[in-house]
């Protein structure tokens, strides 16, 4: 019998509107699934339904270790970590053992159980601090340690990293991944950030409009956009239709593989070029974003570092854009730039 959490024919409705329709989903014990979707895709709706805590009308089956699970069975099996950490009155140490105390464990035993998790998550320097004085990043670390200390069969993570700065987020993701390794917990992370999926999850499902469009090993799913919606979600925001490429299918490219052809830069032969009008530039610190309008729609270029104003053509001026790497939406394969070079008639 398979262990872990799953569902069959799961549907969630608000009034007459169907918010979610997932025919089948399984996360085995010891594995982590990321559910990646844009705002409003139904990610939280899915987590609440799986945890049997939905306030909507739900049909279908929630499975625990392969069998339909009741609400009380799920309550015992599941621990959730939410976007905003909730700290109770008292020290960090007292907060970490809360879940164990709720489950009837003595104070002494709970402290002994929690100790390795406090070490694994690097919380020792904070244990005596008033939990309500913590930063959001610190509080989320406590909240995750509290969840892990219970050794749950199922861990549901509802965007717990979204309010953290990039360094804090990367540290916590790495520590959580290490802490989960070898544990018999089935973990589901919902997020809109593909980098979080890559950092934490072996498998990823793409959820759009309440339906799973793609599902598989994370590295494969993140690099195999199958339609314009999943392409956008996966960062392939530049859509190049056949009218632009001259090829048979729409191809998609990441902004980091798309750059302006600038004066004085020697161009190699390994990119396809298209002309357009420079709409605006945005300094992002580590990179400069340049938006260009072309005959077949907008393209976004990303140049590493700061581009000097003197290097850039004026807004409204004609520019050439080079796309170094693109994928076919029909096959998800990388498309060599050769076949559609000079498709715009250059
Ligand atoms: N009571 C309700 N009545 C009607 N629609 C609802 C109701 N509750 C939620 N929805 C809709 O369900 C959809 C999914 O919401 P949900 O919060 O699950 O999305 P999400 O993917 O978690 O989004 P976000 O990333 O913005 O948190 C949204 O379009 C939302 O407006």
From TrEMBL:
Keywords: ATP-binding, Nucleotide-binding, Transport
Domain ABC transporter as annotated: residue spans: 5-234
Pfam families: ABC_tran, TOBE_2
Gene Ontology MF annotations: ATP binding; ATP hydrolysis activity
Annotated InterPro entries: AAA+_ATPase, ABC_SmlMolc_Importer, ABC_transporter-like_ATP-bd, Mo/tungstate-bd_C_term_dom, P-loop_NTPase, Transp-assoc_OB_typ2
UniProt entry tagged with the keyword Electron transport: no
PANTHER family on file: SPERMIDINE/PUTRESCINE IMPORT ATP-BINDING PROTEIN POTA, SPERMIDINE_PUTRESCINE IMPORT ATP-BINDING PROTEIN POTA
UniProt-recorded name of the protein: ABC transporter ATP-binding protein
């Amino acid at each position: 019998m398979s262990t872990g959490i799953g569902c069959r024919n799961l549907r969630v409705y608000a009034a007459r509107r169907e918010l979610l329709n997932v025919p089948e989903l399984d996360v085995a014990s010891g594995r982590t699934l990321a559910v990646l979707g844009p705002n409003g895709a139904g990610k939280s709706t899915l987590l609440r339904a799986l945890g049997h805590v939905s306030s909507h009308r739900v049909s279908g089956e929630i499975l625990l270790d392969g069998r339909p699970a009741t609400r009380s069975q799920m309550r015992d099996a599941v621990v959730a970590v939410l976007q905003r950490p909730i700290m109770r009155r008292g020290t960090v140490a007292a907060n970490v053992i809360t879940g164990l105390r709720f489950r009837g464990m003595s104070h002494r035993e709970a402290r002994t159980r929690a100790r390795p998790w406090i070490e694994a998550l690097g919380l020792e320097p904070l244990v005596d601090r008033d939990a309500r004085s913590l930063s959001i990043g610190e509080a989320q670390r406590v909240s995750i340690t509290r969840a892990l200390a219970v050794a749950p069969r199922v861990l549901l993570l509802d965007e717990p990293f979204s309010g953290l700065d990039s360094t804090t987020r990367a540290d916590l993701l790495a520590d959580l991944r290490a802490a989960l390794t070898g544990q018999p917990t089935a973990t589901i992370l919902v997020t809109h950030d593909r980098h979080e999926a890559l950092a934490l999850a072996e498998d990823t499902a793409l959820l759009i409009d309440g339906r799973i469009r793609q599902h598989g090993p994370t590295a494969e799913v993140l690099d195999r956009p199958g339609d314009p919606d999943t392409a956008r979600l996966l960062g392939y925001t530049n859509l190049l239709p056949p009218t632009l490429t001259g090829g048979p299918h729409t191809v998609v490219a990441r902004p980091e593989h798309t750059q302006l052809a600038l004066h004085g830069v020697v161009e190699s032969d390994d990119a396809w070029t298209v002309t357009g009008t420079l709409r605006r530039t945005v300094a992002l610190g580590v990179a400069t974003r340049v938006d260009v309008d072309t005959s077949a729609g907008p393209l976004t270029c990303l140049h590493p570092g700061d581009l000097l104003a003197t290097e850039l053509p004026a807004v409204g001026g004609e520019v050439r854009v080079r796309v170094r790497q693109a994928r076919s939406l029909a096959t998800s394969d990388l498309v060599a730039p050769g076949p559609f070079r000079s498709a715009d008639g250059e």
